[in-house]
Structures are given as C-alpha cells and as structure tokens.
Amino acid sequence: MIVERLQSIMSHYQLSASSLADAIGVPRSSISHLLSGRNKPSLDFVLKLIKAYPEVNLYWLLSGKGEFPPKKSILDAEHNPKKDLGTSLINGPTEPNGKSVSKIVFFYDDGTFETYHPKK
User: Fold this and answer.
1) CA pair distance 104, 87, nearest whole angstrom
2) What pLDDT score does 17 carry?
3) Omega before 69 within 30 of 0, i.e. cis
C-alpha cells in the first residue's frame, strides 16, 4: 500500500510529516490525509515527491515492485561512467593530502576493463 511506502520514505530520510510536506511544497494536511488513508496521492503530489527525492523509484512508489532505498554502488547504472564519474573525479579538487587522480580503471562483469587517464 502506498501509505507504507510513504512511511518508508519518511523513515529513510528521517522526516516528519510536516517536514516532508515542506520539502515537497504541499500543505501539511495533505500528508496527514495520505497517511490516514483518507486520500490517495495525486499525480501532482507524486511528481513533487519524485522531484524532491530522485532516489525514490517511481515504479516502486506506485506499485510496490522494485526496491527502496536503492542499493548504492560506485558505478550507478543510470550514470555514464565515462562522462559523470570520470569527469567528476578527474576535474574535481585534489585530496587534502595534495594527491590527485592519475588513472581510473573500470572492471566489468565479463572480465574486461577500461582505463581512463585525466586530461593534463
């Protein structure tokens, strides 16, 4: 039921009903009515929730199928490792100890790998 999934989101992010309402820009009574089962969420509510918390899987929220919270990995399947991860690591600040990234190696399930070097 969507009430349990909404409670799971609130628990995961350690939110009260009023703080969730404030975070997504809906009246506090909306959350109260949803949690009590009086109302069902509108499309506008769902879209605001997903926009504020993009880690929430829309399919999971609506149907209960899938998972939340998402499993974290260094290479998120939604990212292009060549673009997002590599660029952020290479162009990011150096470590506090003055070291910088010299090489990134991606290992794949099929036993292959790719190496990336920062632009100098």
Assistant:
1) 11
2) 93
3) yes
Distance from chain centroid for Cα 26: 21
10 Å Cβ neighbour count for 86?
A: 19
Would you say 17 and 77 are in contact if contact means Cβ atoms under 8 Å apart?
no
Q: Which domains does the chain have, with CATH numbers?
A: 2-63 (1.10.260.40), 73-120 (no CATH)
Closest CA to 39 of 48, 49, 29: 29
| CA dist 13 → 56, 65, 91, 105 (Å) | 11, 20, 30, 33
Nearest 5°: phi and psi at 107?
-105, 130
Q: Is the pTM of this model over 0.85?
A: no
Q: What is the pLDDT of residues 98-111, one digit of tens each?
A: 777 778 888 888 88
DSSP 8-state assignment for residue 68: S
Kindly report, residue by residue over 30-88, the tens digit of the pLDDT: 999 999 999 999 999 999 999 999 999 999 999 998 888 877 654 454 554 444 444 44
